[in-house]
Q: What sequence folds into this?
């Protein structure tokens, strides 16, 4: 007989999941009402749109080119394929340099932000009070860094130190440091602390126990997530081209504006290929870090000399070659990225042509400009508060609501679509023999169809997340006109692929026992997914969904720079027309405040789920 408490908890959990999904659909309708309809006069409403724009754009996807479409270029102009490969190399270089700065800083702040690093209840109250500010400072710092989009960081640094590659690299490194630190701290906190506690109880020092137990346990997840963040850094580096940094995004922008669609598709395919390669390497690394290699050569344990036996054991110890290759290859590439002259590669200096004095003058001038106007003119804090309130009343409040509505609508659409399509991507479910259960039918056609379905769905997830949402939005704005919905679609499509990847990993790690029982009782593979696998994974799904909502708020802020009345539009107007960097900072901090609130709620949810588990 079923335990009453357990049955009650199951029913409450089921109702909670239903209310969550219904709530998301209600939020989607509310956001649609807030954002309003599409563009009043979209480009596709024109009669010539199909023949002049849409058809050439689509047909060019099958006709990429390596030659210039611009016939007016001089004979000595750099060929198209050299230009695009150079900008692709710059994209890769800036992402490498940014990650080489972000990873060490992320590890440092991640340790400080980890709750397992700080004294527990057994320590004195005075010690906890003394160390608490360090923890709060770490959490505040990483939230501030990641709450501002790398494109906005780039705008600030370009204004402060000039148009140089190092400004772009620092702009990428700051938010990635915050994200890495947050995830690293959560990975460490989720580890089993039994080994650490046992070592401390045996007389080991807390720092020694932390470094020898929790860090080795956390390393596989930290390593694979770092490679994933490098994939994100490549996308972000490409987006910097839209504000003038010489990455492949700059080529994409120029090609689209000049209707050189064959060039555009070549650039998109190249970016897609590089990101897919990094994704494949990440999957391979993740597989090897979570499994033990086989010993290929057996040592001779009968040798009389014990030292030689130990040497043979070390020499024949099983190791994954790809992990060592990735480590040393990454180190070499980072060295070349920082110092390309060691390989005689001619490239633009990282620091640009400005001297130290010029940088100092620019920074001083910039700091003066971001100071609120009333304070800059000798006013009081009371006058500054009135200035901020006026910006909040018009247009800050409406812009913030639009930004949150865009992010919420996008993440709701992507989540609902991913939930429905996820079974078709699962290697366990999208299989001729689901969950490895023999069903008495062997058909080569059936087996091939399921393999194609699974591979095609996983590839669709990969393609949708490979191209940055900013590029999707830029193209959709040009094709559909300026409104919120091209931006929402771009955000939703990109996050659909990311949620498919993250949720797919969660689902694959779940025990298939309950789903197998449903299947053996006569249920279908999809009944097993919706009644077993998805409910068991639901809490983890929600955690990733909340994380992606925070990211969508950052992205929605930036996408407004393409013309829709979100925070990004007013950030762009403040920068380009009035050079009012103080107003620009105000709108940036409005978006950051939402991330701070979201981070606080996320901590409470994680703690609640961990305690209930």
A:
């Amino acid at each position: 007989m079923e335990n009453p408490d357990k049955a009650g908890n199951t029913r409450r959990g089921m109702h909670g999941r239903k209310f969550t999904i219904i709530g998301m659909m209600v939020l989607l309708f509310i956001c649609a009402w807030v954002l309003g309809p599409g563009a009043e006069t979209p480009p596709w409403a024109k009669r010539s749109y199909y023949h002049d724009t849409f058809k050439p754009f689509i047909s060019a996807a099958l006709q990429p080119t390596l030659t210039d479409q611009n016939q007016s270029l001089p004979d000595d102009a750099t060929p198209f394929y050299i230009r695009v490969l150079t900008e692709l190399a710059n994209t890769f270089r800036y992402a490498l340099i940014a990650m080489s700065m972000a990873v060490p800083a992320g590890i440092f702040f991640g340790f400080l932000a980890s709750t397992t690093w700080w004294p527990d209840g057994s320590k004195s109250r005075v010690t906890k009070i003394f160390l608490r500010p360090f923890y709060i400072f770490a959490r505040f710092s990483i939230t501030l860094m990641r709450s501002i989009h790398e494109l906005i960081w780039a705008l600030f640094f370009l204004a402060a130190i000039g148009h140089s590659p190092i400004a772009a690299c620092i702009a990428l490194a700051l938010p990635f440091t915050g994200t890495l630190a947050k995830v690293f701290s959560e990975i460490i906190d989720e580890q089993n602390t039994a080994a650490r506690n046992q070592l401390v109880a045996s007389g080991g020092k807390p720092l020694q126990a932390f470094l020898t137990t929790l860090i080795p346990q956390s390393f596989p997840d930290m390593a694979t997530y770092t490679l994933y963040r490098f994939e994100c850094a490549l996308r972000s580096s490409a987006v910097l081209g839209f504000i003038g940094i010489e990455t492949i995004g700059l080529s994409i922008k120029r090609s689209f504006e000049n209707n050189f669609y064959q060039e555009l598709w070549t650039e998109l395919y190249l970016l897609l290929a590089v990101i897919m390669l990094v994704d494949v390497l990440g999957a391979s690394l993740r597989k090897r870090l979570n499994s033990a290699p086989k010993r290929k050569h057996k040592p001779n344990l009968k040798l009389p000399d014990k030292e030689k036996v130990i040497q043979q054991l070390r020499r024949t110890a099983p190791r994954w070659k790809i992990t060592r290759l990735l480590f040393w290859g990454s180190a070499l590439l980072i060295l070349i990225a920082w110092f390309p002259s060691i390989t005689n590669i001619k490239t633009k200096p990282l620091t640009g042509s400005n001297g130290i004095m010029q940088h100092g003058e620019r920074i001083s001038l910039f700091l003066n400009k971001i100071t609120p106007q009333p304070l800059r003119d000798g006013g009081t804090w009371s006058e500054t508060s009135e200035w901020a309130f006026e910006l909040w009343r018009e247009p800050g409040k409406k812009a913030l609501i639009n930004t949150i509505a865009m992010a919420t609508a996008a993440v709701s659409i992507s989540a609902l679509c991913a939930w429905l399509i996820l079974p078709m991507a699962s290697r366990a479910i999208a299989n001729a023999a689901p969950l490895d259960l023999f069903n008495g039918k062997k058909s080569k056609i059936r087996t091939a169809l399921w393999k194609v379905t699974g591979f095609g769905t996983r590839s669709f997830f990969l393609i949708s997340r490979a191209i940055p949402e900013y590029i999707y939005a830029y193209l959709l704005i040009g094709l559909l006109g300026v409104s919120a919905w091209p931006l929402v679609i771009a955000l939703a499509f990109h996050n659909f692929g990311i949620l498919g990847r993250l949720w797919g990993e969660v689902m694959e790690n779940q025990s298939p026992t309950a789903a197998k029982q449903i299947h053996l009782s006569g249920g279908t593979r999809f009944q097993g997914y919706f009644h077993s696998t998805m409910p068991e994974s639901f809490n983890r799904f929600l955690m990733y969904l909340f994380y992606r909502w925070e990211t969508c708020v950052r992205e929605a802020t930036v996408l407004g720079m393409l013309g829709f009345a979100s925070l990004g539009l007013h950030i762009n107007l403040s920068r380009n027309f009035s050079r009012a960097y103080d107003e620009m900072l105000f709108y940036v901090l409005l978006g950051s405040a939402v991330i701070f609130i979201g981070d606080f709620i996320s901590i409470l949810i994680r703690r609640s789920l961990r305690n209930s588990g």
Confidence is low (pLDDT under 50) at residues 1-9.
